[in-house]
């Protein structure tokens, strides 16, 4: 590190990496991956340059949502251990700068996606940004323990947007991809909340673990995992399904169901005794669960000879 760079870091002034962090790059990577899956498995070929541009603008839109979320949530981010080092609470980026970045990138991403592909895809992206920034962040997150359930829709739209880029429409396949993420979100985040309860309580966020307790949260994880399974398997019998996807889905859903069952059976004494090992394991599994479902969809549709004829 040069002396100039060191002095800049010590002064607390924003650097390029701070603005990247403002866009929640880890969340953006999930947006990119699932949107790309939706685009690539669609039955309509998209020129590679157009596909790249569309995914880029979807990613920018996802980043814009993250910046707006950090702008609004700066007060609770300062309280939570998990978020106190984010750019705004740490003082590296001002709230006004975050708002300006979020609004500018929102407008840019929607307009450019509309010009590059079609206005249905752009409209879905605009609604996704609005839903995450306004419906979830400004309203649901601080008002109801169902914040994750309803707010999960924001993270579920990217594959539907990718599909719309390719086809110009919405179909059963894109709706089921949406539902896969939508129903996955609650057990994924509640598993995290079980071993992060104090953070949400200290910040005054009405997470289910805070409002209804961990026992109720464990039951909710099991119920939502059971409800998730039919949507995951239903994708296997659509035009984009096949033996590769179905085999992957059967294995992953069996493992996820077992994990949810194990969480439900445990009490707090057991969880505290082993440092919430099961809950942390299921949370990690939930990350692999979503990634592998969409990876299997892409393999199923992009690699020749992996259709149902494999079983003939």
Strand-residue fraction?
Answer: under 5%
How many E-type strands?
0
Mean pLDDT: 90
**Which CATH architecture of the largest domain is right?**
Orthogonal Bundle
Oligomerization: single chain
Instruction: Kindly provide the radius of gyration, computed on alpha-carbon positions and rounded to a whole number of angstroms.
Output: 20 Å
**SSE topology string:** HHHHHHHHHHHHHHHH
Distance between the termini: 61 Å
Helix content: over 70%
CATH homologous superfamily of the largest domain - what is it?
Answer: UbiA prenyltransferase
The number of domains is 2
Query: In one word, what is the shape?
Result: flat
Backbone structural class: mainly alpha
Count of helix runs: 16
Q: Can you tell me the CATH class of the largest domain? A: Mainly Alpha
Uncertain residue segments: 1-11
Largest sheet: none
Membrane topology: Multi-pass membrane protein
Catalytic activity: heme b + (2E,6E)-farnesyl diphosphate + H2O = Fe(II)-heme o + diphosphate
Subcellular location: Cell membrane
Function: Converts heme B (protoheme IX) to heme O by substitution of the vinyl group on carbon 2 of heme B porphyrin ring with a hydroxyethyl farnesyl side group.
